[in-house]
Amino acid sequence: MTEWAEQNEAGTRLNSNGFHLLTVDELRHDAETIAMLQAANATMKALGYTEHGQRHAGLVGNIAQNVLEHLGYDQRTYQLGNVAGYLHDIGNAIHRQNHALSGSLLAWDILRRMGMSPQEGALVMNAIGNHEEERGTATTAISAAVIIGDKADVHRSRVQNPRLEDFDIHDRVNYAAKRSFVRVHAEEKVISLELEIDTYYAAVIEYFEIFLSRMTMMRQACNFLGCKYQLIINDTQFA
After folding, report:
1. Which CATH number applies to 6-237?
2. In whole angstroms, what is the distance from residue 208 CA to residue 205 CA?
3. Would you place residue 11 in the very low, low, confident or very high pLDDT band (cuts 50, 70, 90)?
């Protein structure tokens, strides 16, 4: 992966071919990116889904970066994991169905405008395009890390329905999740998803009922990174 090469007169970091080494901090302040994420979450809220906006985007990106960094990948690789994680859900601004594919194309317009190289853009597009359970598969370290970050975000802060009595099973399971944390045991080659679930709001079995495809996808992503996947709920290991 290309490392930092030089800075231009404006202080922008460039690679050896003159392309901009874009970081997630720049995306967080980009008006187009902000608009797409806000529109994506507005769509999902209207459809009754959990939060898919800037909070989720930032968390997924950070988890992806942390996974790659702890496994020893180079700086630029884990930075691209953060970029891909931050942009992975912008396709929801168009439509929920096939949002990974539409999102990858929307992302390329943003990345190209901001000066990213085609080679790095292709890696980010691949990661975005492969994060859906229905058709996604980890084929690069970046795509694997984004999948792990996305599927790990189960938490009550994602619930957008204000009425507890109107919760569906997805609302209840997310609301029941008081804590979720991805822990990387680099030496043991193990990646653990640790959850604390308040069983007053949802039974542990309900997590498996609605998130089995997520767990399967996380396992494949961990395997791609050469790691074993572990699921730990309320201090009990299930996988």
Report:
1. 1.10.3210
2. 5
3. low
